[in-house]
Amino acid sequence: MTFLQFIFYVLAGIAAISGLMMISVKNPVKAALWLVLAFISTAGVWLTAQAEFLGLVLILVYVGAVMVLFLFVVMMLDINVAQIKEGFTRYLPLGVLVSIAIFALMYLVLGPDRFGLSHYPSPQEFGANYSNTKAIAVPLYTTHAYAFILAAVLLLVGIIAAITLTLRRRPTTEVLYQDIDKQVKVRAEDRFRMVKMDAVVEADVKKEEGKDE
Amino acid sequence: MFDSLQAWLSSFMYDWLAVLITLLIQAVVVIMPVMITVAWLTYAERKVIGYMQVRMGPNRVGPGGWLQPIADAVKALTKEVVIPSQSNKYLFIIAPVLAIAPAVAAWAVIPFDANGVVVANINAGVLYVLAVASIGVYGIVISGWASNSKYAFLGALRASAQKISYEIAMGFALVTVLMVADSMNLTDIVNGQKGGIWHWYWIPLLPMFFVYFISGLAETNRAPFDVAEGESEIVAGFHVEYSGMAFAVFFLAEYSMMILISFMTAIMFLGGWLSPFDGIPGLEAVFGWIPGFIWLFAKVAFLLFLFLWFRATFPRYRYDQIMRLGWKVLIPVTIVWVFVVMIMEYVKLGPWFN
After folding, report:
1. ipTM for the complex shown
2. Chain B interface, best mutation among A56, A66, A133, A136, by max B CB count within 10 A
3. Is A175 among the domain residues?
4. B127 contacts A68? CB cut-off 8 A
5. Which among A64, A87, A68 is positioned nearest to A29, based on CA atoms?
6. Which domain holds residue A41?
């Protein structure tokens, strides 16, 4: 067993176990954390398959950003696990049927008949200087430029839609908004007026008191 | 050096075991100095801020107080780790581990000198550091949730939202460095800056240099962006329930991330281990004897001093102002600068693009 195989089996084992735990564990927060572990170990498997760019981006995007937001939501919701699990036995036969169907389909398409070792040669080994990132970037920005731009536009539309859905401008009577441009542009003359006036001499107190007597 | 060790080991044991032992030794060789630096960085912080505020700082343990970190470590190790009732015990213990593991793992690709003084000289080094550092947010989120405390949870939400926001600006700043250097390998990035201080990338990427360092401050939850532990509002933030060594591990993670950010800034913008006097006739010969890692450490020390200086100088940002700075100031600046770098690349400007 080479060291690379050792690493692969460790990572693949962790990925499989954490995937199982993710769907079987009761607490939704823990389920999300198992999913994170599954992502990280899958990224490791991709690294061993010489797809270092995809592996690192998987960690950067899904683990570092998407799953954190997911955890936010799950943590703040007070989910009653017992209520969700109520229909488990009732729907079990249907669930088993569906999962058998899915696995059968997957076996037909991805099974050894079509994706076996005999159908595919072992991947080409590249040297340490081979840049996987460039190998992805060059076709992405040349031959597939239009598809790439289309995907980018779709994402932009998604961003705008998400912002417009959540944008809520409350009236200024209710909330005080801070306008930093206005704050910076304030000058002393706008707030402070110098007034010229004659000096007023206070009347002598003792004299006044003396008069009264 | 490590290749010959591995070859010697594999002469009498399994290959994979030899590789594993070599990796362990390499990890220890890199991590031990980092941890020792963290210990005396805390001492330096207290001294520097002390003198800035006209006080002495720690001065009781050892001459000038320089044994203070050891006393602190002994104290942290001997204290009890209190696990709050109703908390999630396993996650409570795992959280500090998750905080420090990425802060340590990222050191694998940091080069310390020319001629490959680096654990793993990989092609996607910059991406690796970014990806591994992004895992660090889980330590915060989990510690906040597992503590079963409102303060800790609020602190965790604040800290992780801030980290995710500033990671974007940080990533864009790195993109401009990649565009100039034409490589994601950290050693290649430094080698691309050869030839004196005006060849370093901080000149064509000056705004990115600032953006990267400010984002680094926010990423490490340091002042003026330390709302995660706003004492007056949410006590100590996400690690309010932690005591003893569990708390100290969070501390170690924060400080080793600070050192990591300083190393990344020095490598990508300040020429790494290159001497600033290269290419200046008289000075090059005078300073030629200084080894490269001394230059790198000097630059890192200066950047770390900036971290401490900022903490002593700036008042804390308000939370909405932090978000405004990240999303509405830094990210637009980086996006504009990506286009500026494109133009600079097109016209082959100066000594940087050739």
Report:
1. 0.82
2. A56
3. no
4. no
5. A68
6. 1-86
